[in-house]
Amino acid sequence: GDSVTQMEGPVTLSEEAFLTINCTYTATGYPSLFWYVQYPGEGLQLLLKATKADDKGSNKGFEATYRKETTSFHLEKGSVQVSDSAVYFCALSDYSSASKIIFGSGTRLSIRP
Amino acid sequence: GAVVSQHPSRVICKSGTSVKIECRSLDFQATTMFWYRQFPKQSLMLMATSNEGSKATYEQGVEKDKFLINHASLTLSTLTVTSAHPEDSSFYICSAPPRGETGELFFGEGSRLTVL
């Protein structure tokens, strides 16, 4: 079945460092790909998404490109801030599954001032 | 934007009792809602898909008699944990896709259940 694999955390960086969180997926169809973020004490919220190959999703300085050839959707940010500390979830949705979303295991990111 | 609200946010109960968690879509109608369970420092596990006006669809390994789901209206789904035990203690999260937004979900704040 469909699955998502993302790098294990926790990831600890200094403020203004470059961030990459790796995510790869397995799907039988042509899924949409998402990054969700969960800030401390809050619910999940959509960070960015891409619906087809070579699409780039971006939001709040974060970017991820849908790479069909490598089945990847790595999350990047050029300069992280303390406020980016959160848990990040890579996820996919197959249209044939009526919006059911499969999540990766989550990566906890901590940014040091 | 679309908002999904859960209630209660925290609940503590004694072993053997039943607990109901509500999930409401506040400014949109949701024919489908999803219930997830999140263990500490782990990802979200899809438990079931709640369908308005029909039976819920449960994922493999989820006990339907244990976790009763009712989707009585286009804005409300409920999850009842029956005869709760300490191992049912977890963070339960509901979500819903706004109509026309295939693939994207809006999440409730989550409900933390502690069974003593």
Distance between the termini of chain A: 41 Å
Kindly report how far apart the N and C termini of chain B lie. 37 Å
Query: Given the C-alpha coordinates, what overall shape of chain B results?
Result: globular
Tell me the fraction of residues in β-strands of chain A, as a range.
over 45%
Oligomeric category: heterodimer
Structural class by sheet pairing and helices of chain B: mainly beta
Write the layout of secondary structure elements.
The complex is a heterodimer of chains A (113) and B (116).
Chain A: E1 3-6, E2 11-14, E3 19-21, E4 23-26, E5 32-38, E6 44-50, E7 56-59, E8 62-65, E9 75-77, E10 86-93, E11 101-103, E12 107-112
Chain B: E1 4-7, E2 10-13, E3 19-25, E4 32-38, E5 44-51, E6 57-58, E7 67-73, E8 76-81, E9 90-96, E10 106-107, E11 111-115
Parallel strand pairs in B: 2-11
Antiparallel strand pairs in B: 1-3, 3-8, 4-5, 4-9, 5-6, 7-8, 9-10, 9-11
Report what the structure shows.
The complex is a heterodimer of chains A (113) and B (116). Chain A is mainly β. Chain A contains no helices and 12 strands. Chain A has strands at residues 3-6, 11-14, 19-21, 23-26, 32-38, 44-50, 56-59, 62-65, 75-77, 86-93, 101-103, 107-112. In chain A, the strands form 3 sheets. In chain A, strands 2, 5, 6, 10, 11 and 12 form a 6-stranded mixed beta sheet that branches. A 4-stranded antiparallel beta sheet of chain A has the order 3-9-8-7, with no helix packed on it. In chain B, 0% of the residues lie in helices and 51% in strands. In chain B, strand 4 (32-38) and strand 5 form a beta hairpin. Chain B is built from no helices and 11 strands. The mean pLDDT of chain B is 89. In chain B, the strands form 2 sheets. In chain B, strands 2, 4, 5, 6, 9, 10 and 11 form a 7-stranded mixed beta sheet that branches. With 116 residues, chain B is mostly beta strands.
